[in-house]
Specification:
Order of helices and strands: EEEEHEEHEHEEEEHHEHEHEEH
CATH superfamily: L-amino peptidase D-ALA esterase/amidase
CATH architecture: 4-Layer Sandwich
Radius of gyration: 19 Å
Number of domains: 1
Oligomer: single chain
Number of strands: 15
Helix content: 10-25%
Distance between the termini: 36 Å
Shape: globular
Structural class: alpha+beta
CATH topology: L-amino peptidase D-ALA esterase/amidase
Strand content: 15-25%
């Protein structure tokens, strides 16, 4: 690891090659149902952009305020940096041992007025404040005040979380560098120091495109996964975690009793389907089913918090109204539910596949999911 600051911005073009060359779950032969979009990412929903700043520095013993540092910030911009029109949105907490700011106004108003920031637990405040400053600079204030949405998961096993290393300039860099197209996954952005099922976790994304007969809509998901214990991990219905028991990080005794799940997950669902806030709430709840497919039980210590938004119904925020909006009939929601479940599951597995072994504070080491072992286990079970 470098001993100086390293800020990595995901800045691939919206059209063109991938932002990363690491294999993804489908490249390893993991079988998934459903049809992904072009990039198999949340950015397949037209207009959605993702920006990330990754901070890695130092090795060895923890010195609070100095490091080692393994953290960052990820932002999701619903209509892109050039379009400030708010979107219909909703949120849901499967288990609330975590934080997502701004959700009381999302619940009350039905709108998301800001980008979504994702970072580590103790950097929520600085990310929130920096997003307000960025919004002021870019004329994205819709009230005399701003209530941005910022979510977190805990990276203190690998990162000097009490050193507050995420700074306003890192947030602005992520926002200014947000782009469409392919999205970097694994230990990047807010996911840099995260652990998932006791393998290296982090950022993962996926999408589903529905056939024209079912509306032709796209659903995209982005996760910051930091949840689960090894025996729970299930991939394509196979008990992968039980089949790969080696190199489990020795962190349970220091945190919680061994029988408990630890960690959290943030799930962001985007769609271009014309959904109203109460329908988006239904979509957020289906993310729990994609999470469950990978083995999670959403334990007591887990902050499993989800948000969904729709890029349809442009101008619905504008006054004085009344404004006309469109919506999918409830009887035709099932394909969107299915797409959400499938894309959530694949996003989590993509994060695991992209996660590379990392050593952080006090020499704490977390292994990446071994690709050859994953393929061996899937083959053993005929998957």
């Amino acid at each position: 690891m470098s001993h100086g600051w390293v800020a990595v911005l995901a800045c691939a073009a919206a059209v063109g090659g991938a932002a990363q060359t690491k294999p993804r779950a489908r490249d390893l032969g993991v079988p998934f149902t459903g049809t992904p979009g072009r990039f198999n990412a949340i950015t397949d929903v037209a207009g959605v952009e993702v920006g990330q700043t990754t901070l890695i520095s130092g090795d060895g013993p923890l010195v609070v305020g100095k490091g080692p540092v393994r953290t960052g910030v990820t932002v999701v911009v619903p209509r892109g940096r050039a379009d400030a029109d708010p979107v219909f949105a909703a949120w849901f907490a499967q288990n609330g041992n975590g934080e997502m700011t701004g959700t009381t106004w999302v619940e009350e108003s039905g709108f998301l007025e800001s980008p979504v920031g994702i970072t580590n637990t103790h950097s929520v405040g600085v990310v929130r404040d920096a997003m307000i400053g960025w919004g002021l600079e870019h004329h994205r204030m819709f009230q005399p005040w701003s209530l941005p949405v910022v979510a977190e998961t805990w990276d203190g096993w690998l990162n000097d979380i009490n050193g507050f290393h995420v700074k306003p300039e890192h947030v602005r860099a992520a926002l200014d560098g947000a782009h469409g197209g392919a999205v970097d996954e694994g230990g990047v952005g807010g996911g840099t120091g995260m652990i998932c099922y006791e393998f290296k976790g982090g950022i993962g994304t996926s999408s589903r495109h529905l056939p024209e007969a079912l509306g032709g809509y796209t659903v995209g998901v982005l996760v910051q996964c930091n949840c689960g214990v090894r025996p729970q991990l299930t991939i394509a219905g196979v008990p992968v975690g039980r089949e790969i028991p080696q190199e489990v990080p020795d962190r349970r005794a220091a945190m919680v009793p061994a029988e408990r799940e630890m960690g959290s997950i943030i799930i962001i669902v985007a769609t271009d389907a014309p959904l109203l806030p109460h329908q988006l709430k239904r979509l957020t709840r289906r993310a729990t089913m994609g999470l469950a497919r990978t083995g999670s039980i959403s334990g007591n210590g887990s902050g499993d918090i989800f948000l969904a938004f729709s890029t349809a119904n442009r101008g619905a925020y504008n006054g004085p109204g009344p404004n006309r909006v469109a919506m999918v009939d409830n009887d035709h929601m099932n394909p969107l539910f299915e797409a959400t479940v499938e894309a959530t599951e694949e996003s989590i597995v993509n994060a695991l596949v992209a996660g590379e072994s990392m050593t952080g504070v006090d020499g704490h080491h977390v292994p990446g999911l071994p690709h050859d072992e994953l393929q061996r286990v899937l083959k053993k079970y005929g998957r």
